[in-house]
Amino acid sequence: MNKTQQRQIAYAARDAQIDKAAASAEICQRLLSHAGYQAAHTAMWYVHCRSEVRTLPAIVAQLSGDKRIVVPYCTVDAAGEKQLGLWRLDALDGLQAGMWNILEPPRERWLEPAKQVQADELDVVIVPGVAFDLQGGRLGNGAGYYDRLLQNVRPDTLLIGVCYQAQVLPQIEMQAHDVFMDLIVTEQAIYQGVGRRG
Question: Cα–Cα distance between 156 and 125 in angstroms, integer?
Answer without folding.
Answer: 11
